[in-house]
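sorry for the late reply, my laptop died twice this morning and i had to redo everyting from scratch. anyway the thing you sent over, i finally got around to it. pasting the sequence first so we're on the same page, its 275 residues, then the predicted structure underneath. double check i copied it right bc i was rushing
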Amino acid sequence: MGAPKQKWTAEEEEALRAGVDKHGAGKWRNIQKDPEFACWLAARSNIDLKDKWRNMNVSASGQGSREKSRSLKLKANPNTPSVNAMVSDKVPDALPAKVADCSKGLNDGKYPASRYTEMIFEAFSALPDPNGTEVGAIVRFIEEKHEVPPNFRKKLSSKLRQLAQQGKIEKVHNGYKVINSSLGTRTPTPKQTDPFHRSKLSANSALHTTNSMVEKTAISIASEIAEAEIKSQMAYKAMLEAERVQRLAEKTDAMLQLAKEFYEQCSRGKVVIMA
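ok and here's the structure:
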């Protein structure tokens, strides 16, 4: 056996009606998460809200038919109190005020949800830290700058978690930090720039490509010139070597001719004297 269900209070019913008026029937999770109604409906599940709303509609339709039949009877008896008087006696007038008190308890009267957001981002602006601002530092800054209610810290922690879920701030190890887009410091993309800037960027890109191609061509030409110079030096050395060999061959031929003459003279019996 599960735990017995608690009877719905008049405040809870009024909060459910106000939540349906704001978010629409079927948006039970949105109604539960809405800070305006969370303090009254936190103990109820989305199934509870759905079932209660169906029962309330059935009761309202049944009450409407009963009031019609009762009004017919009242017309026959002029001494009977009016239907409006009977209904006003049964329905307490304080229900809307209590729901208003719920909203006031959540937002602390003069501190609505938007005011919490303003104070949080004011603290981030005054305490810039790329690694994140500690929650204690945010609390101390706001308490020094503003007059806060007794349950301020609890409400502030809840608002910080809500902003983190919405992607406006980011939870870090030692606290929270602001995402750049939340402060409107998003760096403009090329689509956000003017046409002149886009054409300038295109011209710069084309110039960079041209300079790169010219640089590669210059390197290639320099390499070919260096290779040609090396080949030219090798050819020059080869030419010098060929000239040296030619001179050596000429000297060799002269010595052979001289030796041949000596031999002929010796064969004829002549005496050859070499100086």
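The beta strands are 169-172, 175-178.
thats about all i looked at so far, will dig more tmrw
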